Amino acid sequence: MNQDSVKTFPLTEGVGQALEVTLRGVDELLPKDEWIQKLAKSEATGVPLRIKLGLDPTAPDIHLGHTVVLNKMRQLQDLGHQVIFLIGDFTTLIGDPSGRNSTRPPLTAEQIKANAETYYTQAAKVLDPAKTEVRYNSEWCDQLGARGMIQLSAKYTVARMMERNDFHTRFTEGSSISLHEFLYPLLQGYDSVALKADLELGGTDQKFNLMMGRHLQAEYGQEQQCVLTMPLLVGLDGVHKMSKSKNNYIGITEDANTMFAKVLSISDDLMWDWYTLLSFQSLEHIAQLKADIAAGGNPKHAKVALAKEITTRFHSAAAADAAEQDFTNRSKGGIPDDIPEVSLSGAPLGIGALLKQANLAPSTSEANRLIDGGGVRIDGTVISDRGLKLDAGSFVLQVGKRKFARVTLA
């Protein structure tokens, strides 16, 4: 470590403000004192800090859960620091074992390439593209070769690797651990060496991998990065972390009406965590909203404001306004202006077959289940008879709160 890195720099008001921005919504900042000095050094020297976030393109789409760390990156970016958006095209070939109880099946190179093409385009909806450095870890990992991989592996012990919770649990339970999985945290840590990162961000489930970056930077004689972990965003169900596999997510490419309605569906308690982790409103503003509701205000007003903010970010203010109006119409039993037009033949046609052919139910049996649950309406009237046959004519079919079709049956 060079002499400049251990010099003490003054803690100014600007450093204090930058620290406050850093700590908003954070789970852990390690080591905090080192980060304060990095901020102070950056302010004194005018050299931006290098902020790293690595994402593996394991799926083509990003959801709001991913944007928790992206939001933090944007906040640090707005302070003037250099953001590095790292696409883990090489590490995805291994598959991140974090938090898993079995070996993750690796993706093919073609799948990785296809997913990576959409990742940054979506992330740029949060980050400032003009101030973002986009990198791929295949740049340096491909160059390691067999000799470099062996030399890298020599910088960490198996005993230390087995301290990692998921590896330890799988070993004690007799579940398999493939040798290539040990390479994942090593390579993620090596990314920090290659990029000379000052700070690396990730979810709480990434702490071991993030700390590996600190270890390897010391091994390679670099100034060590600090580590910042963000909480995992709880999904729409209010129980599990947001995940496509749990179907409790909001994709950032979903249409504005769906996005707005999904945000409004979360619980009043969960709303405050979402405000802290997803909103760009100040903490003072959020505290005032809480105080207003505690004094008897309607929490729906705060939730609508959050839904509009998120929808505006990924669409536009006009789209958010239209989504609010659409939601209001639906909640009053109204029919949205823009619904699919479907022309069918075969009158008289059974209601179950009609719902299936209008793409409002995946099968006749599912259509019958929806009817039994009171979730089907024709021109606003709830249908309870699964044996109903409809004659020729035009009418509006509705399933649940959000699915509509204007059907012309001949």
Automatic annotation (TrEMBL):
Enzyme Commission code(s) on record: 6.1.1.1
Binding residues for ATP: K244
Subcellular location: Cytoplasm
A family per Pfam: tRNA-synt_1b
Residue window of motif 'KMSKS' region: 241-245
GO biological processes: tyrosyl-tRNA aminoacylation
Primary subcellular site in the record, as a coarse category: cytoplasm
Any one GO molecular function term: ATP binding
Ranges spanned by the short sequence motif 'HIGH' region, renumbered to the chain: 57-66
Keyword tags: Aminoacyl-tRNA synthetase, ATP-binding, Cytoplasm, Ligase, Nucleotide-binding, Protein biosynthesis, RNA-binding
EC class of the enzyme, as a word: ligase
Residues covered by the RNA-binding S4 domain: 354-394
Catalytic activity: tRNA(Tyr) + L-tyrosine + ATP = L-tyrosyl-tRNA(Tyr) + AMP + diphosphate + H(+)
UniProt KW rRNA processing keyword: no
InterPro entries assigned to the protein according to its UniProt record, in alphabetical order: aa-tRNA-synth_I_CS, aa-tRNA-synth_Ic, Rossmann-like_a/b/a_fold, S4_RNA-bd, S4_RNA-bd_sf, Tyr-tRNA-ligase, Tyr-tRNA-ligase_bac-type, Tyr-tRNA-ligase_bac_2
Gene Ontology CC annotations of this record: cytosol
Coiled coil regions in record: none
HAMAP family recorded: Tyr_tRNA_synth_type2
Family classification: Belongs to the class-I aminoacyl-tRNA synthetase family. TyrS type 2 subfamily.
Known function: Catalyzes the attachment of tyrosine to tRNA(Tyr) in a two-step reaction: tyrosine is first activated by ATP to form Tyr-AMP and then transferred to the acceptor end of tRNA(Tyr).
Subunit relationships: Homodimer.
Protein name: Tyrosine--tRNA ligase
Lineage: Bacteria, Pseudomonadati, Pseudomonadota, Betaproteobacteria, Burkholderiales
